């Protein structure tokens, strides 16, 4: 597919495949097209050429809310918490597409069990929480829609190393429960440690692709992204 | 001093009455601004159209000062037609005039809004009536004057105040206590993130225009019953004052619009009653200038849109 902002293509001939149950990571430096790829998957940006398929359906023309209703969720870059809604209201927004009140309540208990801090702060406004707490909230909020396919845009950005590690552990746990995960990351070492496969973007093109193990071994990869 | 003490309560009541109408219209400005960050300058004229719809319904059923069917039924019909008609008008304006410009330069929708405002005024002036149209208020509602001590107010004025207050409470409950209300607030705070939640932002915007415009429509009914007349220009000054009220309260903030409206009405009434009635309108805008100088974000500093 190709994505353009005005006349300049931001992505060119990018082709990716994410299979059910996988963790796939997308790596690359600044302005390589990672975020554009993510926006195209969630539907904020429409590709100029090419198509996006999900669960055997062509979803290229679907708007974001329809994609979310079909089980795609995103933990966006910079978290994008609703700053003046409470923690609880933020979580309930995550469940906006659902109508099963009892199940929503049990999911609420479940995510608050995963992130006890959110339970303590349920009445507090989202914008008043620390970066780490907001990241937890963004993740919990995405889970409230019961996604089958979870996209994570730069989950490690701006977090302390301890929190980054927790974050990646949580991603692995979620994957074990059956959620397919697509993670966009600058931190290649962390991402490849949990991913099955990875793609590397450079100036809007896929320059490397393969299993996490093969990417870790790749000399070009080691030089450019892994700091070896 | 004696004069001041004697007339103070009366001026306060007059001010609250006018202010409740400002507040009701101000809500429409502030709702739309909160979600789209655009000033819908046609809103005052949506109020005017509501007044004309109410006058039209009243004209159908009232002949020679006598209602053909029970007066209460006529009033209910007036409210329904004005709210529905104004609501749909607001939604139509958004669909035709504002939506195509949603990603345009901020100035484009603003100028378009002014154009729609002039269009509505001209159409009503040319097609309906260039002169004021009478609303047979005396055939429909009690014209009694309520008296409490030395304060007097017509029944229709008290009705205006109470109805406006009830509507504002209802809107507040809707926005702060319902799921759709939360979706509206989420959309106001971060439109793209709202789409990530599966919220259909276009639908939120349509509902926002529908509610704001319907409130303006019922405002038109209350105005018509209170003053027994409507005219094509009535939304102009009132719209600007309601907008002023929204800015004083902190545009984008619902409770701010209510407080701003009531405050503006009272200030105007005091200024007109104690200083100079000829300068009554000027006091409203003087208040605006003072608030903007001292507290540019309005009294309720953090608007609905605030991105912390």
Keywords summarizing the entry:
heterodimer, A: 228 residues, alpha/beta, Rossmann fold, 2 domains, six-stranded mixed β-sheet, two-stranded antiparallel ribbon, 39% helix, B: 308 residues, mainly alpha, ABC transporter involved in vitamin B12 uptake, BtuC, 5% strand, disordered C terminus
Structural summary, described in words:
The complex is a heterodimer of chains A (228) and B (308). By secondary structure, chain A is of the alpha/beta class. Chain A has two domains: 1-71 and 147-228, P-loop containing nucleotide triphosphate hydrolases (Rossmann fold, 3-Layer(aba) Sandwich); 82-145, no CATH class. In chain A, 39% of the residues lie in helices and 19% in strands. Chain A has ten helices and ten strands. Chain A has helices at residues 34-42, 64-69, 87-94, 101-114, 116-120, 131-143, 161-176, 188-194, 212-217, 219-224, and strands at residues 3-5, 8-11, 23-27, 53-54, 57-58, 72-75, 149-153, 180-185, 197-202, 205-211. In chain A, the strands form three sheets. Chain A has a six-stranded mixed sheet, with helices on both faces. Chain A has a two-stranded antiparallel sheet with strand order 1-2. In chain A, helix 3 (87-94) packs parallel to helix 6 (131-143). Chain A is globular and about 50 Å long. In chain B, strand 4 (145-148) and strand 5 form a beta hairpin. In chain B, helix 2 crosses helix 10. Chain B contains twelve helices and six strands. By secondary structure, chain B is mainly α. Chain B is 74% helix and 5% strand. Chain B has one domain: ABC transporter involved in vitamin B12 uptake, BtuC. The radius of gyration of chain B is 19 Å and the shape is globular. In chain B, strands 1-2 form a two-stranded antiparallel sheet. A two-stranded antiparallel sheet of chain B has the order 3-6. Mean pLDDT of chain B is 93; it is low at 303-308. The chains are: A alpha/beta (228), B mainly alpha (308). The interface between A and B is medium-sized, with 28 and 22 residues.
């Amino acid at each position: 597919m190709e994505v353009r902002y005005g006349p300049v293509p931001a992505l060119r001939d990018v082709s990716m495949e994410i299979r059910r149950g996988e963790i796939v990571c997308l790596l690359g430096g600044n302005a390589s097209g990672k975020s554009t790829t993510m926006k195209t998957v969630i539907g904020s940006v429409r590709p100029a050429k090419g198509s996006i398929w999900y669960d055997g359906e062509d979803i290229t023309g679907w708007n974001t809310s329809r994609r979310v209703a079909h089980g795609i969720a995103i933990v966006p870059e910079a978290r994008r918490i609703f700053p003046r809604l409470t923690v609880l209201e933020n979580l309930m927004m995550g469940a906006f597409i659902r109508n099963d009140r009892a199940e929503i309540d049990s999911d609420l208990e479940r995510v608050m069990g995963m992130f006890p801090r959110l339970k303590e702060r349920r009445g507090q406004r989202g914008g008043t929480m620390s970066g780490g707490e907001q990241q937890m909230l963004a993740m919990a909020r995405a889970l409230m829609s019961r996604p089958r396919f979870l996209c994570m845009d730069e989950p490690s950005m701006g977090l302390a190393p301890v929190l980054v590690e927790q974050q990646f552990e949580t991603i692995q746990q979620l994957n074990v429960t059956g959620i397919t995960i697509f993670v966009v990351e600058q931190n290649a070492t962390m991402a490849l440690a949990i991913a099955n496969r990875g793609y590397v973007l450079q100036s809007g093109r896929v320059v490397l692709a393969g299993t996490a193990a093969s990417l870790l071994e790749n000399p070009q990869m080691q030089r450019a992204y892994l700091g070896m | 001093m004696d004069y001041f003490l004697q007339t103070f309560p009366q001026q306060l009541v007059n001010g609250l009455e006018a202010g409740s109408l400002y507040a009701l219209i101000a809500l429409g400005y502030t709702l739309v601004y909160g979600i789209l960050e655009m000033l819908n300058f046609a809103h005052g004229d949506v109020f005017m159209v509501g007044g004309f719809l109410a006058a039209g319904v009243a004209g159908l059923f009232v002949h020679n000062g006598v209602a053909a069917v029970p007066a209460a039924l006529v009033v209910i019909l007036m409210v329904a037609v004005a709210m529905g008609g104004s609501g749909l008008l607001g939604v139509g304006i958004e669909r035709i005039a504002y939506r195509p410009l949603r990603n345009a330069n901020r100035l484009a929708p603003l100028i378009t809004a002014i154009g729609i405002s002039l269009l509505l005024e001209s159409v009503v002036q040319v097609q309906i009536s260039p002169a004021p149209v009478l609303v047979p208020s005396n055939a429909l509602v009690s014209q009694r004057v309520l008296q409490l001590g030395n304060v007097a107010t017509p029944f229709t004025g008290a009705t205006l105040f109470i109805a406006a207050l009830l509507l504002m409470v209802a809107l507040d409950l809707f926005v702060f206590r319902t799921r759709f209300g939360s979706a509206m607030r989420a959309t106001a705070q971060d439109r793209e993130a709202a789409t990530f939640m599966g919220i259909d932002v276009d639908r939120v915007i349509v509902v926002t225009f529908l509610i704001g415009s319907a409130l303006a429509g019922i405002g038109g009914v209350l105005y018509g019953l209170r003053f027994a007349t409507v005219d094509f220009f009535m939304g102009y000054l009132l719209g600007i004052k309601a907008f002023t009220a929204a800015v004083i309260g902190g545009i984008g903030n619902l409770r701010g619009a209510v407080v701003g409206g009531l405050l503006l009405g009272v200030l105007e009434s005091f200024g007109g009653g104690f200083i100079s009635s000829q300068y009554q309108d000027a006091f409203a805008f003087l208040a605006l200038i003072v608030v903007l100088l001292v507290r540019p974000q309005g009294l309720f500093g953090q608007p609905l849109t605030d991105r912390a």
